């Protein structure tokens, strides 16, 4: 008789190493937003895969940084949580990173009771000789349960990784109902889709100043009607976010609507507003209201 296996597989690393890209590759579906700007992911994002024999709960986490405001402190608390409940901890680095770049969490990783996986991502960007060099470098430093060079983007090494994860899952009953895909409500995913478009369409500091609130989400037979407010912590950002005659907001809205229609498999009507909330990133009450802890 085979026994059921279930566990938490938590992906950690510095910003921009491809954690969300890996999460999506493992889930076979876009769950977590991706961008070339650092600090794209702000929450712990859970993706659940269930079969007759196992349930694997992947967590994508914010990139590890030294926090300089309360929003970032909360982001780092999400990472801390994942150290605590992991059955498997996956550290992702890019080929240029060295031991000193991951010093802030390396010890905690190495001393964790979880199975330890270490992956060098983005190997599609380097040649064979360089792959050998980074492999030699890290193998000298590390003693882990699984080591590989992968490309999350091109899905090189991701199937082997998945096989190893299933092999290493502990015996345990399922944590979530078998049809659950995530622990977050639909509203969360629409707000993330909108935030991704903001990351795409605006320059450096704007995406860091905003959060997306879903004011209303009404599902009808053929359409979902969504009302959303983009809040920014700076007055001067409001006209930039809106654009001339509303042109920028329209761009964001159209792109977000298209992605949301794919995600929900339904027609979407999306209305966007912009509001200034000075200091929201440092306001504990507001942060809690926005789902940070
Ligand atoms: N060439 C290449 N680029 C990749 C790969 N994986 C991710 N990227 C790119 O790296 C950038 C960051 O990817 P994300 O998945 O958002 O990285 P992250 O670690 O989740 O970043 P944060 O959420 O900001 O911590 C994006 O531009 C991705 O397209 C890869 O295997 N190869
Ligand atoms: Mg991410």
Q: What is the approximate shape?
A: globular
Beta-strand content: 15-25%
Discrete helix count: 10
The CATH architecture term of the largest domain is: 3-Layer(aba) Sandwich
Percent range for helical residues? 25-40%
**Can you say what the CATH homologous superfamily of the largest domain is?**
P-loop containing nucleotide triphosphate hydrolases
Determine the structural class based on helices, strands and strand pairing: alpha/beta
Could you give a short description of this structure?
The chain is built from ten helices and nine strands. With 293 residues, it is an alpha/beta fold. It has two domains: 5-168, Rossmann fold (3-Layer(aba) Sandwich); 186-289, K homology (KH) domain (GMP Synthetase, Chain A, domain 3, 2-Layer Sandwich), CATH 3.30.300.20.
What do you see in this structure?
This protein has 293 residues and is α/β, with parallel strands linked by helices. It folds into two domains: 5-168, P-loop containing nucleotide triphosphate hydrolases (Rossmann fold, 3-Layer(aba) Sandwich), CATH 3.40.50.300; 186-289, GMP Synthetase, Chain A, domain 3. 37% of the residues lie in helices and 23% in strands. The protein is built from ten helices and nine strands. It has helices at 19-27, 70-85, 103-110, 128-141, 158-168, 186-201, 205-209, 237-242, 247-264, 284-289; strands spanning 5-13, 45-50, 54-60, 88-93, 115-120, 146-149, 210-219, 223-232, 267-276. A hairpin with a 3-residue loop joins strand 2 and strand 3. Helix 6 (186-201) packs across helix 9. The longest helix has 18 residues, at 247-264. The protein is globular. The protein binds guanosine-5'-triphosphate and magnesium ion. The site of magnesium ion (MG) has 6 residues, from helix 1. Guanosine-5'-triphosphate (GTP) binds at residues 13, 15-21, 34-36, 38-41, 62-63, 121-122, 124-125, 151-153.
């Amino acid at each position: 008789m085979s026994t059921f296996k279930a566990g938490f597989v938590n992906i950690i690393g510095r910003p921009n190493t491809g954690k969300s890209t890996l999460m999506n590759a493992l889930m076979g579906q876009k769950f977590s937003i991706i961008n070339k700007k650092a600090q794209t992911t702000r929450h712990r994002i859970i993706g659940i895969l269930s079969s007759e024999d196992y349930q694997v709960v992947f967590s994508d986490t914010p990139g590890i940084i030294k926090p300089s405001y309360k929003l970032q402190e909360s982001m780092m608390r999400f990472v801390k949580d994942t150290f605590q409940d992991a059955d498997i901890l996956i550290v992702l680095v890019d080929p240029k990173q060295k031991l000193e770049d991951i010093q802030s969490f390396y010890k905690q990783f190495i001393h964790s009771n979880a199975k330890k996986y270490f992956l060098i991502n983005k190997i599609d960007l380097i040649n064979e000789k360089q792959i050998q060099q980074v492999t030699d470098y890290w193998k000298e430093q590390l003693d882990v349960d699984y080591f590989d060079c992968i490309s999350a983007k091109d899905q090189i090494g991701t199937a082997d990784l998945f096989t190893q994860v299933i092999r290493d899952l502990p015996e345990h009953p399922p944590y979530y109902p078998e049809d659950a895909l995530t622990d977050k409500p639909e509203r969360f995913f629409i707000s993330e889709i909108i935030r991704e478009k903001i990351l795409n369409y605006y320059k450096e500091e704007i995406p860091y100043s905003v959060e997306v609130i879903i004011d209303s989400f009404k599902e009808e037979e053929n359409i979902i009607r969504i009302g959303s407010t983009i809040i920014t912590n700076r007055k001067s950002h409001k006209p930039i976010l809106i654009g001339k005659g509303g042109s920028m907001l329209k761009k964001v809205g159209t792109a977000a609507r298209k992605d949301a229609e794919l995600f929900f498999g339904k027609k979407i009507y999306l209305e966007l507003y912009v509001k200034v909330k000075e200091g929201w990133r440092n306001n504990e009450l507001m942060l809690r209201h926005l789902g940070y802890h």
